[in-house]
Amino acid sequence: MEAEKVIADLESILGSEHVHTDVETRDQFAEDLFFSGPAPLGVIAPASKEETCEAIRACTNVGIALLPRGGGLSYTGGYVQSEATAVPAVVLDTRRLNRILDVNPDNMTVTVEAGCTWEAMMAATSEHGLRATMSGPTTGRYSTVGGSLSNNCMFFGSAKNGTAADAVLGLEVVSAKGIVIVTGTGATKNSVPFFRNNGPDLTGLFLNDAGALGVKITATLRLEKIPDGQSAASFSFESFNTLITAIRAIGKSGLASECLGVGPAPLGDEKLSNPTLHVVCEGWTQGIADAHLAAIVEIVGPEGTAIDPVVPNFIRGNPFSFVQSPLDAKGRMQIWTHGVFPLGRVTDAYDGFMTVLKDHFPDMASLDIDASLSFACAGPAMMVEPVLYWRGQAKKLHHNGMVQVENPADEDAKAERRDERIRLIRNAFSSMMDDLGAAHMQYGRFYSYASVTNNETISLLQNIKKTLDPDKLINPGVLGL
User: Fold this and answer.
1) What whole-number distance in Å separates Cα of residue 153 and Cα of residue 182?
2) Residues 349, 183: Cα–Cα separation, whole Å
3) Mean pLDDT for the chain overall
4) What band does 47 get if pLDDT is binned at 50, 70 and 90?
5) Terminal CA-CA length for the chain
6) pTM of the model
7) Do 18 and 44 meet the contact criterion of CB atoms below 8 Å apart?
8) pLDDT band for position 410 (50/70/90)?
9) CA 289 → CA 131, 162, 280, 303, 335, distances in Å?
10) What residue segments make up the domains of the chain, in order of their start?
11) pLDDT at position 1, please?
12) CATH of domain 2-94
C-alpha cells in the first residue's frame, strides 16, 4: 500500500507520463549490459532540480530507495540491485535533465545537467571552438555526463588530460534528504563555478562514487580551445609485448591526445591478426601536431609497422559513432572487464589477464567464447581491458538501450554453461586485479572497492555516507556500502 501511495505522489510531482510502472519498462531498468536484478517499483524521469528534490524526498521519507541511472550502459551492476540484498526501490532516470545551462568562453567552462550526453555537450561547446578537456567516451552519443562522472570514463583527450573526473570544476548533487549540495566555487557567495580546489575538494567526494552519496543534477567542466593541428597514425605489432612497450613509452611522453592498442587475445594455435596501436596527436598548428607524431614514430621504432590510420581518423571524424550497438560487429554479445594500472604494472596486468584466459581456454573454445584485449592511456595510467564475445540472447537493454539490434541467437544447449563460464572468467579477472592493486572505473557492485581499501578509509567513507544518507537509500550496495 505504501508503494502505491508513493507512486501516486510521484505522479503528482512529475506527471503520470514520467512515472512508469509497466512490467516491460521495470524489467528493462532491472538489468544492465551484464547483470540482472529484481524489478524496481517504478521508473521516474524528473526534468528539473525542483522535481528531482521533491521526488527523492517522496521516496526516502517512506524508506524507498533511489537508483540513479544515466544512459544505462553499466556492465558492473551500477544501478542493478542484487537479489540477495535488494530493497524496495525506484529507478531515477536522469535523461530528461539534459539542458546545456551555460557555455562560458571567458571563464572556459561549460555547465550542463546530468542527463546531457557528451555528444550534445560537444556540439554546444564546439560552436565556440572549445571542448571539454576530456570530451567524452566513444559511447558519448548515449552516455550521460552525470552517469560518467559517477563511474568515471575516458577516451577523447585522455592520454593528455586524464579521465572525465579530471575535467570537473564543480557539481550540484541532491542528497537523500532532498537537499542540494554545491561544490567548488559555485558554492561561494558572489562567485560562479570556475575553480574546483577552493578549500577542501568536495567535488572529488562525489566523483566516481557510483551514485552512492547523492544524485548529480548539474556539472561544470573545464574547456580548452580545439587545436588547429591534428595528426594520426596506426601501427601493427608482432606481439602484445612489443605493443605494450610502445604504448607505455607514449604514455610517458605526453605527446598523444588518444592512444589505443587493441587485438585478439592469442590463446590457441590459430594464427590471429596482429595487435594494432592507434594514436592521435594535436598542436596549436599542424606543424606542431606533425612534430609530435614524428616523435611518436621514433618512440615506436622498428617494432611497429606503420599501417593506414583508418581507425583513429574514423573515430576522430565520427567521434560518437564508433560504438553504435551494445553488440559487436558480428552481432555477438560482448562484455568488458577492466583495470586501471600504473604504467610500471601494465605488463604484469597483461600477463595476469592472459593467465586467466589460458586457464579457461578449453572451455571457452568448446563454448564458442572469443576474447580480445585493449590498452588505453589515461594520463599517467593505463586502462587494460579484455573483452569476451559470444552468441547469446540479447536482453531488453540491448534492444532498447542504444540502436535497435537484431536478436543475435536463440538460446541453445550451451547457454547456461556459457553464461556461468563467463561469470567465472570475470570473477577471476577481478581477483587477479585485486592482487595487482588495480583501480577501476564503474565500480558499481562488481569490483570490490570496500574489500580492497584500507579500513580507515572505508570507515571515513561509511561515516560520510551515514551523514548524507543515514538510511542507505541512495543506490544501496554500490562500493560495498
Assistant:
1) 22
2) 36
3) 94
4) very high
5) 28
6) 0.96
7) yes
8) low
9) 18, 19, 9, 23, 35
10) 2-94, 96-225, 227-322, 326-396+408-444
11) 55
12) 3.30.43.10
The rounded distance, in Å, linking the Cα atoms of 276 and 283 is 24
CA atoms within 13 Å, Cβ hemisphere of 428: 16
Q: Which residue has the cell 607524431?
A: 293
Place of cell 572529488: 204
**At how many degrees (to 10) do helices 2-14 and 49-60 cross?**
170
Q: Which residues contact 270 (CB under 8 A, 6 or more apart)?
A: none
Q: Which CATH number fits domain 227-322: 3.30.1330.10, 3.90.226.10, 3.30.70.3450, 3.40.800.20?
A: 3.30.70.3450
Give per-residue pLDDT as tens, 55-83: 999 999 999 999 999 999 999 999 999 99
Counted residue by residue, the chain has a size of 481
pLDDT of residue 45: 98
Cell of 347: 605488463
What share of the chain in percent tops pLDDT 70?
97
| 326-396+408-444 CATH, one of 3.30.365.10, 3.40.50.620, 3.30.70.2750, 3.90.550.10 | 3.30.70.2750
Q: Give the mean pLDDT of 12-16.
A: 97
Q: How many Å apart are CA 46 and CA 61, to the nearest integer? A: 18
Neighbours of 298 (CB within 10 A): 10
Check whether 402 has a pLDDT greater than 70: no
